[in-house]
Amino acid sequence: MTGANIKPIHVIGGGLAGSESAWAAARVGVPVVLHEMRPNRKTAAHQTQALAELVCSNSMRSDDATTNAVGLLHEEMRAAGSLIMACADKTAVPAGGALAVDRDGFAKAVTSAIEAEELISINRAEVAGIPPAEWDSVIVATGPLTSPSLADAIDKLTGEDSLAFYDAIAPIVYKDSIDFDIAWMQSRYDKGGPAGDLAAYVNCPMNESQYNTFIDALVLAETTEFKKWENSTPYFEGCLPIEVMAARGQKTLSFGPMKPVGLTDPRTSKRAHAVVQLRQDNALGTLYNMVGFQTKMKHGEQTRILRTIPGLENARFARLGGIHRNTFLNSPRLLDRKLRLKTAPRLRFAGQITGVEGYVESAAIGLLAGHFAAAERKGVEVLVPPPTSSHGALLNHITGGHITGRSEAATFQPMNANFGLFPELTERTEKGRPIKGKARRESYCKRGAADFNSWLASIPTQSASQIR
């Protein structure tokens, strides 16, 4: 079968997951209609009409495929021909051991690749409800900012209220407004990364007195008020606003995004009490975002309090922080192992709406949804990836823990890729004890990569589609 005589798959949502789903299906010869409502209908967080626009951090996190579950996910995606990873590698900026991108360049690269793919057509219109019956294969990848009309339709169809949490955005600073008589450039532990720079981060030091004053200001800061119906919506623990972390205890931030370990102030040759880090946000190196500084403070409070940070006294902000409401499905109850809605299997779901958290996790589930839908279109049976891989562990988490039994619908929450989702290792030390530390992480990655590559060999042959 060729693209000319195969009915198209409809992908709703042009974010990371939707773009990855469309690309995965097109690469194996299945036509796709990609529906993206922007710019005709805007969201609370997006600023452009580009596909795969990054609305929060510009970091894909750790790129270490030997000891890190996220880094392993990167390598699995690359092996599977991921569009998102190819564009991230193409637009990487210095970020130590992490993979960070020029956010505008990244979105443009994804958009250009999708627009150039002959088997993908883009429809710039909102899908305001459950798709018509003639769309017999649909991937809903509308992300955490699903339009209210579609979200309401999904709620009515599933009979389940979507769970929800808040996600906060970190401020972005113009580099030329940072005082480098105080701040310095260094990556934590001088560790290099994909872009090859050992000094990728701007570091702003605080002594104990400055840190305590800063924490006190955060706790007292005026914040954005929630609507009455939003008051019970929980935060996602992996992306807490800094003022929420500060309220949990005076030392919380110094053991979190402001931890000083692995950094030495060149002026004192000592470690500061706390450090605020900023990471390059664009290829020109003119913009830096404040790492881990998601916030719901009002804009006036942000500028006042953030300018008390040593080195940022005269900071100019290209973007201040913000907060938006994210929604996700109770996927263990609603979805089957191939991401199909159990009560309406023509509908698949992908990305953050399924209950994964993070850019690459969302794209990875999009990649799987694209492969599952394309295989179904071509009449080919495709097994799910093994739970020992990062892809399989995430899939196992969001579809009910069928293998490890770790995810239950009653307590389901969004999750990043982490080794806690993986089946336990069977390897032991010479004394018969479980291996620990770095050796344990290395074993997880080695096993996962081998098992994923074996699974990859079983899916439909990839076409010659390439990023142009």
Describe this structure in words.
The chain is an alpha+beta fold. It folds into 2 domains: 3-162 and 329-456, FAD/NAD(P)-binding domain; 168-325, Elongation Factor Tu (Ef-tu), domain 3. Helix content is 29%, strand content 15%. The strands form 4 sheets. It has a 6-stranded mixed beta sheet with strand order 6-2-1-7-17-16, with helices on one face. A 6-stranded antiparallel beta sheet has the order 10-11-12-13-9-14. The relative contact order is 0.18. Mean pLDDT is 88; it is low at 403-407.
Question: Can I get a quick summary?
Answer:
With 468 residues, the chain is an alpha+beta fold.
> Treating each run of at least 4 consecutive H or I residues as one helix, how many helices?
12
Q: Please bin the fraction of helical residues.
A: 25-40%
Largest sheet: 6 strands, mixed
Query: What is the residue-averaged pLDDT?
Result: 88
The assigned CATH architecture of the largest domain is 3-Layer(bba) Sandwich
Strand order of the largest sheet: 6-2-1-7-17-16
Q: By helix and strand content, what is the structural category? A: alpha+beta
Residues in β-strands, percent: 15-25%
Radius of gyration: 22 Å
First-residue to last-residue Cα separation: 25 Å
